[in-house]
Amino acid sequence: MGKPRDLSMFASVLTALLVASAALAPAEEASSPTEVAPVPVEAVVPEDAAPGAAASLSSEAVPPPAEAVTEKTLWLVRSTYPGQELLVPRVEEAIARLVVGGDGQRELVGSQALPAGPKSGDAAFACAFGERGCVETMGSLAEGAGASRIVLVEVGQDWAGYRCRIASFHAGSTEIATAELESVSLDKALVGAILRVVPVAATLDLRSDPSGAAVLVDGEKVGVTPLSMQVFPGERTVRLELATYEAYETRQTVSANSRVALAPTLAMLPGRLRVVSAGATILVDDVEAGTDEVEVGAAAGRHSVRLVRDDFVPYETRVEVKPGELARVDHALEPTSWGSVTQAMSAAQEDIYSRRVYLTVVYDNARLTGGRFAAQSVHALQTKLDGLQSPSPSGAYVHSLGLEFGAAWRYFGMLWIGGSYFQSANPWTMTLTNGDADSFDGTVMGGTLRLLQPQLRVAIWRVVLGVRGGVLGRLGEVKGAHEDTYFAFVDFAGELQGSLRVHLVEGLYLEGGYGRTWTIVGSIDGTQELRGGVGYAF
């Protein structure tokens, strides 16, 4: 009876030692990719064992580390083809940007997260993609990294683009989910493959004020606000559209398994306001916007419009501007009593200034300013007329009728050409030299030519005041009443005229004026004249 009891005690102690040895084994051996993760063994404690002996050896006394149950995901990346190792950091960055979203507490990216070093993940890649089958290897790797999920990413690039293979393993599972995708874009190939095997979709909660706005995510209409929906992780473009409101658009980076809420207040679309009032200063909401005609942007709602102009009755109104539409105000101001006069005067003046060409029929009544008058006989060179005997110079009148053609701008004009025929009102008695008689009675007649005489003018209502000057030429003869004797004369003179022109209707006008000439070359002292005429301005 003594030996069996001793053997039983020896077996119990040996079992406890084996359990303790397994519990104290190095972590590197437990996480080796070629070994199965240790399975806890419950020790058998004999009834007559020494008190406390089994308690110090029980696996229940060594609880698993807290990190082992933390919900973490380990992401490991390797290149498919030799020489493409530079793709690995690119993919790791893409994972952090498109999927992980910077959550360092839940996501471990890269082989540097492996306690046993980068090489410890090679066995996992081998089994995940069919090179060897060992779920135990994935479990050991997850336990060693303190992760509940392992995602293996294998990426390569060839002539067709990027090829991504994904394997996902969850601790406690007996299956490995795999997916594969090719694309010309690395991000699209990566995210598309990940979404097939890893639950990484995020949630968008969208509200708007007012509600009912159409929701577009990455250009695709998905509903109206309020809306809660799942989206792929990464950078998403969200746009809200509602009639009569400005569209709201934002680019939002969405992390895996995150929830993003957006609740913008939409701004009403601005409308347009067009105001037309000739000559008026236009104020919109008490701010000067321009004169005559303006078109401005205006927020939807009611706006004040005020029109002001000197000598006119001010006008003010309120106009409703609708979102995205054009509102119009078209109003002609009414002149005040004095304003009516000034407006009429201004309109008449502008009509005169707008007419550029004129034609005038002119009648002149001129007289000599001195008694000197000389003419040469046409038949005898020694016979001349030299001096006026009668009438006196103040009574020696010459009447003329002519036509003038010119152009006018606002304040400046030009007589292009003018011609007239003149004749003395009565025969003149002049001193005759080298002849049979001492005097000669004859009628003075001839023609006058004017060219390129500049003019200054100003219009006041329908009246135009003008000053004109230039050079004229006269060619004439003195013919006796009962004889066939002719005396000829030529005269070039400077001329200055002042005129007053009254416009009756349209371009029709009457003209009066006073002028004077000073002989430059010739034998006449000069003339002064009163003139009148009628003409039309075109």
TrEMBL record:
Signal peptide positions (record): 1-25
Pfam family name, one: PEGA
Keyword Signal on entry: yes
Top-level taxon in the UniProt lineage: Bacteria
InterPro entries hit by this protein: PEGA
Keyword Signal belongs to the record: yes
Domain PEGA: 203-264, 278-336
Protein name: S-layer protein
PANTHER family: S-LAYER-LIKE PROTEIN (PTHR36194)
UniProt keyword annotations, A-Z: Signal
